[in-house]
Amino acid sequence: MSTVSVSPQVRHFSVPASSFGIVLGMAGLSNCWRFAHVVWGVDARIGEALFTLTAVVWLVLLVGYVTKWMRDHDDAMTEFEHPIHCCFIGLVPVSTVLVGAWVATWSDSAGSVLVILGAAGQLGFSTYRSGALLRGGRRHEDTTAVMYLPTVAGNFVSSIALSSIGYADAAKLFFGAGLFSWLALESVITNRLYTSEPLAHAIRPTLGIQLAPPAVASIAYLSISHNSIDMVFLGLFGYAVLQLLLLSRLLHWFVETGFSPSYWAFSFGATALVLASMHAASVHAHPAVDVLALPLFVLLNVAILALFVATLRLLLLGKLFMK
């Protein structure tokens, strides 16, 4: 009687595109510490050290992601063709833009190259991916907040970075692209959340992305308007605060899923909201914003530290990015 031996399935390391959300959150925190130096006189080396760590994480993830396309092309294509996960691919060039903006503070040429490549990359991907959606045929349950990533997050971040390296007119163009893409998607996504089945446990944390558009838009507006703390900025900032309150209301609903790296979806919007308040405080004393800057900054650091420690724990246990 012959027996058939079955080899155990070998698990392998695979970097998902969503992992670049870690870079966005860390970059946002790093920028907050850089503004803490301007607003409260905090040692500037803290922000630079955090951004150095962010750049290292970005490079490691980028190498891992490129390697996935080379060694496990089928897995990469499955992600690329997935109706939800595909949108996270836009985070790859967006994270490049953020790192490039920081590099530009040390080297104009190197930083500008990264920013321009990242901005062009996110525009190319968002055109391909979001353009395909115009054909229709999408299932209602596949409409989630991740749809903001290609056209909204990418264009707003590009606007901020391009403004920082001196491309003012281009920054305004990207701001417009991000703003109207956000307004077009907002009602579609909100309607799905209000009227359809609840989000599945696995993608529930992605709702944290809902905070990002108004928060990042407020920073982008400051960048292109020469730091105008006016009705437009306060309106964007106010809507971001409302989104924070709405997400806080659902905190118990989120934690039911247990921790996973997808919780980094909250980080970029949260850091952007805090950065907007600190940025505003650094250029103009306005009680509606200044009063929030310090407590939000403290809470943000606690939240990001918790995310970082929980993610590091998964890495040490061999459970991070394993398939």
From TrEMBL:
Compartment(s) of residence: Membrane
| The protein, known as | Tellurite resistance protein
* Native organism: Paraburkholderia phenazinium
Recorded coiled-coil stretches? none
Under the cellular component aspect of Gene Ontology, which terms does the record hold? plasma membrane
Tell me where on the tree of life, at the top rank, the source sits.
Answer: Bacteria
Pfam families with a match to the protein in the record? SLAC1
Q: Which residues cross the membrane?
A: 12-29, 49-66, 86-104, 110-128, 148-167, 231-251, 263-281, 293-316
Membrane topology is: Multi-pass membrane protein
The record's section on Gene3D superfamilies has: Voltage-dependent anion channel
GO MF, one example: monoatomic cation efflux transmembrane transporter activity
Keyword list, A-Z = Membrane, Transmembrane, Transmembrane helix
Chief subcellular location: membrane
